[in-house]
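Reader question, answered in our methods column.
A reader sent in the components of a multi-part assembly and asked whether the whole thing could be modeled at once rather than chain by chain. We filled in our standard form and ran it. Here is what they sent:
COMPLEX SIZE: three components
ENTRIES:
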Amino acid sequence: MNNDSVINKRPNPTSRIIMWSILILFAVVQIFPLIWLVNFSLVSNNEMFTNGLLVWPEKLRFDNYVKAFIDGHFLLYLKNSVLINVLAVIIVLFISVCMAFACSRMYWKLSKVVKGLILLGMMIPIHATLLPNYMIYDRLQINDSIWALLIPYIAFSLPQGLFLTCSFMESIPREIEEAALIDGCGIYSVIFIIITPLLKTSLVTVSIMTFLNNWNEFMMASTYLNSPKWRTLPFSVLEFTGLYSSNYAVQFAVMSLTAAPMVIMYFMLNKHITKGVAMGAVKG
Amino acid sequence: MMKKVLVVILTLALTISLVACSSKGTKEPTSENGTTKEQTDVEKSEDVADPVTIKVFSNLPDRTSGQGFVEQTLFDAYMDENTNVTIEVETLDDEAYKTKFKAYAAGSKMPDLVSVWGQPGFIDEVIDAGILEPLHEEDYKEYGFINGSLDGFSKDGVIFGLPRNTDVLAFYYNQKMFQDHGWTVPQTYDELLTLADKINAEDIIPVAMDGGDKWPLYIFITDLMMKIDGSGILDKVKTAITNKDFSDPTFMQAADLLYESAQRDLFEIGFETTDYGTAQNLFTNAQSAMYYMGSWDMSMATNQDIPAEIRDNIRVFTMPVIQGGKATATDITAWNGGGYSITSSGAQKEEARKLLNYMFKPEGWTKLAWENGVCMSAQDFAQFETGNETEIQKQFMQIVKTSTNISGSPLGDLGTTEFKTVTEDSVQDLSIGKITSEEFLTGLENVYK
Amino acid sequence: MHKAYSNKLVILSLVLPGILTFVFAVLAPICLSVYYALTDFSGLGDYNFIGGTNFIELIHDTNFWLSLRNSLLLAAGFILIQHPLAIITAAILDRLGKHAEGFFRCVYFLPNVISVAIIAYLWKFIYNPSFGLLNNVIEIFGGKGEVNMLGTGTAIWAVLVVLIWHGFGWGMLIYYTGIKNIDPTLYEAASIDGADNKISFLRITLPLMKPVIQVNVTLAVITALKQMETVYLLTNGGPGNETQFMANYLYKQAFSSFKYGYGNSISVAFVSICILSTIILNRIFKEKAEA
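And here is the structure of the entire assembly that came back:
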């Protein structure tokens, strides 16, 4: 509000025009490729070879989407994506809360070392573990199972989760839990009944960051998975380049379709996601 | 401090034990495990026909047209005849397929039936690593495989795979476009280049080239060598690789010619980054007049995704003769490339063998592939002539029938994998003028140094 | 009280799941990587220990250095192009208020929620010389429309553009939050003193944003080093190895060139470089803060 009053006091038309044009220019640059994507997903394949920016199709080709939906195994992959990501988020939250409590509240000598070790994971590039993990999972015969995705997803989201949860936990006064302990509560009930609800904002942030990071991952998925059983949404896109190599319009349709769930979710949870990302970034 | 050290030691110990476990696993001959398991499986299946699942890893992702369709049709038919058998197929595009194949090979368990390429660059290392199961030569006496087509899949007289098709390299062209503009099929390479100038003048791409995948470029250069040298370039290249000596003028001339052609815009702008699908799409959407690819793409003529006025007008010609070259028009660049093998670590070896043998009965792959206008098999396909062939099919059949010399596998596929990688990268660099012909050839010589 | 907080068993039960995940999914593979890096394992069959040979080869491998250079180029692109644009946009956005603010924020961030797989293919199509969006745009502005961005020479810039484009919203959002956290009375005071927007941006916004900028720069460098997915799908390092990045290069060596051992030695170097650069950056910023 205050900012508004500042700008209102100084109505400088030229600078306003410049500001608006910058904003609009960037907005166009950011959004136009996506509009182009949706547009081309609705035309027939030979209408794409045009010189215009957008194509006004003779007939809207929704059958492209039917193909994308069926041949892209959309429902199966969506289900897998949701399941794997939700599980990963829940487990990351659980482990983060437990570890954060142990590291920032309890007294033990190695607390700093353990925390530091896990946080080190933030610097380690996930792709450096692709080759050895393939070997390890192969020996353990968990390649091509949900574990081959869950384990690395959890492990690489954990450092951030732990970091954020720790810094939030430190801002919670100890008195509340100490009173509970005196009343005879066990440590576990203190953590899960008393502390966890207080961490709500931080938990939302961790969930969003974990979800955003893992939802779009496909490198590990394509290395560790063989059968369609656990494939996630990005696979629809990857598979279609082979399957429909001679029909670009369908490829555009599958891209739009796979992007849709996350875009819809973003529009629905816009506020939370913005807040979550911002909070995570500022704290991190 | 002591505790810190202790932690480090503990974690190290944990990981080392993990490493130890896994490395022990590597050295164990995995086939032992495989054999015992597989024997019991066979016994069982003979007694009560227990359910069997055969895992197939294929490089044909498109299951509704082309070779993938034929493959899937055969699998479906096999499952109908053997109700206890389930066939699970995993598919990936060529390059992704090869990558994943190696990942599989590094692991302990392969799928049962896999796509392979009967060329040293792919199959030698795979055979040496003991991944493939030997096939029984006597099984295939009546199968009518073309003479020499099994050579690429054999080592020391043992067959390790069956070829799927006879690949002939050619220029596909849009006949209607040619007629409309009054262009004619070039008889010499110079004519091809002149034609390219004319086509460029009309703002059309002369030849759509999949240079992003790189291998079509080394096939192209092999095609040029073939036309320059005449009698089968195979031995010359093999000798050059062994002796690390590419000083033969044929190589230099071919390299120069490729570079000049690219400079004269024979290919589309950005051909070095154009992928397979895009190259094909340029042609099938009338953006280019010609398209350089193998006979496996003859199924374009029956692909419903391609507009009828284009798909009905696709014709082919092989690389025109080069002035001063020793080859005639009927010396062609062709080989038996893709095929199938059974893996030795697969859980269902014998079942996979049965399936493979079923697929390659002459009335199996050969007949289906030919009748569907998909490709020419490596077996005697002419017996299945129906009279309903597409024009491209007839042309290819004619090309094969009248061929006087056949090149064998292309340049990049004749050395090790490393040689292939180097060839791919450097032929691409050569075609865009990033390196000279000399640098290209010394690069090939230096692979093994 | 203290006793309850130092119960070893409870502590163990709380940390064990996390430690196990970490050891199993991060530490063990890295140790395994070190192990394989010392072998000539091709990915198939037997292998021998060859000591540091792989690392010596690595030092002489121009493609490895090229991929490191590309990472640094990308980091520079992030820091010198993406972040300044993001800060400026964020500062302007901060002054819009209400609906327009929310709208633009939403638009800017949208590409971020879309999968890298889609982004990479989308841009491959955009760059396509035959029917891509880019050439059509150039033609509209009177150009010749025959630009092949993914070709030799320009490919690395094409890759940078995509990555900068994709991450723009994220960076913008972070700076935006940072700016929102600045006490608005500071601006009021400045405007009473006669400072215009430009001056208050330079004198107030930028200095107060320093800690946020530092964190973001560190993140940008790490992100640039870790880059793989987009490049893998967009160019796979090509043409030649012009757009090679470390993660993609190790993948190519291990799985396409049958050099699993060598691929792992790249892995090891890769991890070391990432950790090292984080440490160095932290040092630099710490010293600056103290000075």
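What stands out: The CA atoms of residues 17 and 285 of chain C lie 34 Å apart. Chain C touches chain A through 105 residues (CB under 8 Å).
Send us your own complexes using the same form.
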